[in-house]
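C-alpha cells incoming
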C-alpha cells in the first residue's frame, strides 16, 4: 500500500514553487506567479534636498483587479533627525518579466506633514494610520493627532473613502 501511494506521487504533474494553477478547457495549467513591484528599486518623485530617500513600510496586493499585485510604499527623506513626513505611493509593473517598477499614484503628499503607520492592503483597500499635528506649535517629534485612512481603486483612480478625524489624540 505504501508503495502505491509513493508511486502516485511520481504521477502528479510537476509544480514549481511560486506557481499558480490556472484552469483551462484542457485542464489545469501551471504558470509563474507575478511578483509585486520592488519598492526599493524605484526612484520616487520626492525632493529630499540631497538626503537619501527611505522606504519605511510596504504592503502588496491586487488593488485594481487585473490579477497583478501592486505595491504601496511609505517613503520619507532620511533626514537623520526629527520626524520627516511620509509620502504614500502606489507602484506597478508592466506585464513584461523584466519591466521596471514605476509610480502610478501618490496617495499622500509630504506637504500634508503626516507620518504613516500600520500600512496594509486587503480586499482591494489600502489602509493606514496617519499621525499628524494639531497646530504648528506641536513639536515635530511628537505627533498629537491620529487619523485612520482608506483608499480604494474606483472609476479609474484611487479615491480616499475614509478619513476618521475623530480617531483621537496620540
Amino acid at each position: 500500500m505504501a508503495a502505491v501511494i509513493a508511486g502516485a506521487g511520481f504521477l502528479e504533474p510537476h509544480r514549481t514553487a511560486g506557481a499558480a494553477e490556472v484552469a483551462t478547457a484542457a485542464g489545469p495549467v501551471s504558470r509563474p506567479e507575478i511578483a509585486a513591484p520592488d519598492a526599493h528599486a524605484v526612484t520616487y518623485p520626492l525632493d529630499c534636498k540631497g538626503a537619501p530617500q527611505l522606504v519605511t513600510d510596504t504592503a502588496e496586493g491586487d488593488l485594481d483587479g487585473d490579477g497583478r499585485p501592486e505595491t504601496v510604499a511609505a517613503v520619507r527623506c532620511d533626514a537623520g533627525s526629527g520626524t520627516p513626513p511620509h509620502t504614500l505611493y502606489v507602484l506597478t509593473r508592466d506585464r513584461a518579466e523584466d519591466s521596471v517598477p514605476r509610480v502610478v499614484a501618490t496617495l499622500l503628499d509630504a506637504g500634508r506633514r503626516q507620518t504613516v503607520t500600520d500600512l496594509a492592503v486587503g480586499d482591494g483597500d489600502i489602509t493606514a494610520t496617519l499621525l499628524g499635528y494639531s497646530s504648528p506649535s506641536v513639536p515635530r517629534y511628537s505627533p498629537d493627532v491620529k487619523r485612520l485612512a482608506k483608499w480604494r481603486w474606483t472609476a479609474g483612480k484611487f479615491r480616499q473613502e475614509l478619513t476618521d478625524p475623530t480617531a483621537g489624540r496620540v
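note: Helices lie at 2-11.
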